[in-house]
Amino acid sequence: MLPRKWQGMFNAASFYGRPYRIYVPHDYRPRTPLPLLVMLHGCSQSAGDFAVSTEMNALADTYGCLVVYPEQLSAANSRRCWNWFRAEHQERGNGEPAEIVGIVQEVKAHYRVDPNRVYVAGLSAGAAMAVILGATYPDVFAAIGVCSGVPYKASTHLPGSLLVMARGVPDVTRHGHAAYVAMGDYRRVMPVMVFHGTHDHIVHPRNGDQVLDQWYYTNNLVQQHVRQSQPVQLVPEITTGQVPGGLPYSAHLYRDSGGNVLMGKYMVEGMQHCWPGGASDGSYTDPRGPRASQMLIDFFLTHTLEPTITFSRLPRQQPAPGAGSPRVQPGVLQRIGNRLNRLLRR
Q1: Spatial separation of the C-alpha atoms in residues 344 and 68, rounded to whole Å
Q2: SS3 of 162, please?
Q3: Which of 31-40, 45-54, 244-253, 312-321 has the lowest mean pLDDT?
Q4: Partners of 37 in the beta sheet?
Q5: Is the peptide bond before 321 cis (omega within 30 degrees of 0)?
Q6: Which residues contact 157 (CB under 8 A, 6 or more apart)?
Q7: Which of 57, 95, 175, 272 is in the most buried spot, having the most CB atoms within 10 Å?
Q8: In terms of pTM, does the model score above 0.85?
Q9: What angle do CA 212, 51, 195 make, to 5 degrees?
Q10: Coil, helix or strand at residue 284
Q11: What residues contact residue 252 under an 8 Å CB cut-off, 6+ apart?
């Protein structure tokens, strides 16, 4: 029996054999379109467990959101991990990404959803799948949240995934390019928020840096090739904080021309493989961390599929050493863009 920390209805459903849970806030009105949050659990978790751990349903009551929790089957993965490391689950129209988007479409058919405010976030394997969904369905998801995840197409087989989890990818620009290509005709700038613990011994913290790096490259390729504007150097706002009675953290935030946070990364000092600020009675949570669920919902609701987001044009300068910001070498993005143009002309 799940503890009730929310006021709405938490219903079980299935999409062609794929189970999921849907949370409907207590004040839902069929005539009012609501934002939809897609929450992807980590390995060994269930949809209900992830709802308890993140406390997102209670926030959905406050903010007026629908929340859907797709669930992995043990028949598909013995540890109930999303199969982010297999090539057949990394493309649009195939495998688990297509099933998750199918669930989104089914929810839209039964509830009043604002199609410009659909978001996805996940933990661990769920975070890796959220990255895949951002790359393959940028026309569905307005923004993504990544907690202890890895870059797009970080691996295409299980042995390689273990290496990535242990030490990251050797060349993040390849994965930024791959995500740009995966976006296809739906290419757009993708808002991203990253959370990672500095003591994560399951997914190395380097992956948190690289997820942000990957989306930096991808988003700049969109700027350069879709909008016909030159890549811009973004300089992050770097701040530090301390949860009262809890853990310190550093924030690296990148803003768009309107002043909204476009991309960001929170590194939580001393946290292991956990959802920061989650419930004490949940799994894979650390209540001592900043409240990731609150921060994500605040971040998500500042972004929609329309109007299009634009980068601010900040001075071209290198981030301060050790700042943890994307490491861009002069000419790298231009070389990637030139290579992509040659590929597209074939």
Answers
A1: 37
A2: helix
A3: 312-321
A4: 67, 119
A5: no
A6: 85, 86, 87
A7: 57
A8: yes
A9: 20
A10: coil
A11: 212, 236, 237, 238, 264, 265, 267, 323, 324, 325
Residue-wise pLDDT for 117-164, tens only, equals 999 999 999 999 999 999 999 999 999 999 999 999 999 998 889 999
Name the token pair of 169.
């990818």
Residue among 141, 160, 144, 151 at smallest CA distance from 179:
151
* Strand order from edge to edge, sheet including 143-147: 9-15, 18-24, 66-70, 34-40, 113-123, 143-147, 192-197, 261-268, 248-255, 237-242
Q: Cα angle vertex 279, ends 290, 151, to 5°?
A: 60
Q: Helices in 227-271 by DSSP H: which ranges?
A: none
Domains and CATH numbers, the chain: 9-345 (3.40.50.1820)
- For residue 94, give the amino acid letter: N
Phi, psi (5° rounding) for residue 280? Answer: -70, -25
Residues sharing a CB contact under 8 Å with residue 342, sequence separation 6 or more, in sequence order: none
Please give the Cα distance from 224 to 218 (Å, whole number). 10
C-alpha span between 165 and 106 (Å, rounded) = 33
DSSP labels, 11-72:
EEEEETTEEEEEEE-TT--TTS-EEEEEEE--TT--HHHHHHHH-HHHHHHHHT-EEEEE--
- Name the residue with tokens 């990544």: 146
Distance from C-alpha of 150 to C-alpha of 294, rounded to nearest angstrom: 22
Output the six-digit token pair for 230. 């030159």
**In which residue are the tokens 């379109």 written?**
33
Question: For residue 159, what pLDDT is reported?
Answer: 87
